[in-house]
């Protein structure tokens, strides 16, 4: 329930499955005659799936160029894959002698955790400590890079994230000025702003019930009453979670209150995430709470009004984590070269490039960024990192839980009783936790 690029339709996935396996294997077979197979330290084979011309792709291009400069005798064989190719076929490829030396891979128990449990990924813990990568990110940002028996939050590092992702607030500054509404500094002033916009005949909050935003809102409200223990219990199974406890009860009650007051529009129940951003871009809604993955598109699409970003003022915790990361397959031939490349991606130069491009570098300070809007974004992310405020995403703990959250929030928006909604969320979670080995 995070970055929408990681969710494709079942139909598209099924059509790509066979083709992905073939296209993933074919170029590797062609490379079989190179010096790579011998692991002689003369070739680095690298895969990633970032879209060309995106902030991260440009950063990785710069990292490759820097690697070539510092390793003039090493040939870099780079292959751009699709997310689907790597997601669907990684286990098969990494269990063969065709594994790359380093590749970008998705975080989470069902992806990095699963491959680590299967012994297909290199334990990077000694390297992390030796090169100081762990000192460049917060504890909460590194949770999805560390696993134990396939579950995130363990002691062993299997991935290195270079960027972060999180949910924050987007404000239409012009509408705040036009309607003489003060920018919120805390939850009380946030609700005051909602009330003032509504009194002026404007629905204040953008939303989308048929996609991740509505569930993000519900989880964010729960996080506003949660502490570290609750997050660990919910996300890492550290203890029992009471879905009718104060955290989730507050969330459904406040959500229903805002629906009744018209701060959310009940008609948004059928909208997608892109519809939500259109509400903000078209100035129909002055406030949007959403992921930093919308930032780049908004920067491109908005040219008629002033807007800004800030942490959501109602909670010290938000949805977010370290981003997808670099992994080194167990069967990689040139692991030291892979480590050198990862080290370059963690360098000040590359981290700054990530930030200037509008993404969120995990190891760069906001004061080094010259792009003013990007600086706002990074400052907000850093504020959460500094207080262990990244609390992951609501659908992560249980396989298939995204659909449960989608249905439960739609039920709430359609007038369902809060207790019933909590029961909907509790049932699959409690069943899964009771059966996990």
TrEMBL record:
Q: Which organism is it from?
A: Streptomyces glaucescens
State what protein this is by name: Family 1 extracellular solute-binding protein
Q: Gene3D superfamilies in the record, alphabetically?
A: Periplasmic binding protein-like II
Alphabetized, the UniProt keywords read: Signal
Q: Does the keyword RNA-binding apply?
A: no
Tell me which domain of life the UniProt entry assigns to the organism this sequence originates from: Bacteria
Q: Does the keyword tRNA processing apply?
A: no
Q: Give the residue spans that cross the bilayer.
A: none
Q: Write down the Pfam families for this protein, in alphabetical order.
A: SBP_bac_1
Q: Where is the signal peptide?
A: 1-29
């Amino acid at each position: 329930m995070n970055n929408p690029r990681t969710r494709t339709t079942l139909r598209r996935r099924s059509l790509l499955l066979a083709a992905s396996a073939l296209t993933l294997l074919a170029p590797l077979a062609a490379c079989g005659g190179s010096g790579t197979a011998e692991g002689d330290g003369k070739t680095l084979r690298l895969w990633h799936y970032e879209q060309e011309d995106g902030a991260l792709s440009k950063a990785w291009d710069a990292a490759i160029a820097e690697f070539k400069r510092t390793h003039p005798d090493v040939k870099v064989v780079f292959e751009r894959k699709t997310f689907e190719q790597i997601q669907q076929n990684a286990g098969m490829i990494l269990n063969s002698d065709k594994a790359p030396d380093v590749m970008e891979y998705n975080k989470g128990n069902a992806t990095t955790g699963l491959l680590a449990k299967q012994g297909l990924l290199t334990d990077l813990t000694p390297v992390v400590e030796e090169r100081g990568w762990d000192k460049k990110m917060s504890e909460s940002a590194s949770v999805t890079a560390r696993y134990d028996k396939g579950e995130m939050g363990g002691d062993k590092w299997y991935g290195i994230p270079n960027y972060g992702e999180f949910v924050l607030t987007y404000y239409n500054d012009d509408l705040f000025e036009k309607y003489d509404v003060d920018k919120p500094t805390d939850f009380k002033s946030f609700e005051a702003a909602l009330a003032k916009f509504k009194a002026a005949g404007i629905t204040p909050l953008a939303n989308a019930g048929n996609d991740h935003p509505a569930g993000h809102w519900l989880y964010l409200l729960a996080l506003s009453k949660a502490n570290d223990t609750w997050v660990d219990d919910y996300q890492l199974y550290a203890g029992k979670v009471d879905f009718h406890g104060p955290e989730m009860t507050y969330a459904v009650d406040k959500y229903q209150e805002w629906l009744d007051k018209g701060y959310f529009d009940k008609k948004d129940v059928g909208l997608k995430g892109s519809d939500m951003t259109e509400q903000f871009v078209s100035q129909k809604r002055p406030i949007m709470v959403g992921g930093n993955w919308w930032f780049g598109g908004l920067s491109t699409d908005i040219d008629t009004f002033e807007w800004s970003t800030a942490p959501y003022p109602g909670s010290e915790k938000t949805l977010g984590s370290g981003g997808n990361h670099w992994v080194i397959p167990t069967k990689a031939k040139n692991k030291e070269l892979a480590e050198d490349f990862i080290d370059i991606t963690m360098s000040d130069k590359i981290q700054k490039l990530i930030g200037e491009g509008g993404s969120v570098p995990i190891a760069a300070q906001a004061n080094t960024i010259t792009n003013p809007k990007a600086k706002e974004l990074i400052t907000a992310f850093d504020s959460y990192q500094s207080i262990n405020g990244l609390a992951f995403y609501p659908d992560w703990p249980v396989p298939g839980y995204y659909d449960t959250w989608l249905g439960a929030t739609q039920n709430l928006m359609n007038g369902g009783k809060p207790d019933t909604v909590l029961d909907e969320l509790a049932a699959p979670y409690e069943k899964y936790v009771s059966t996990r080995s």
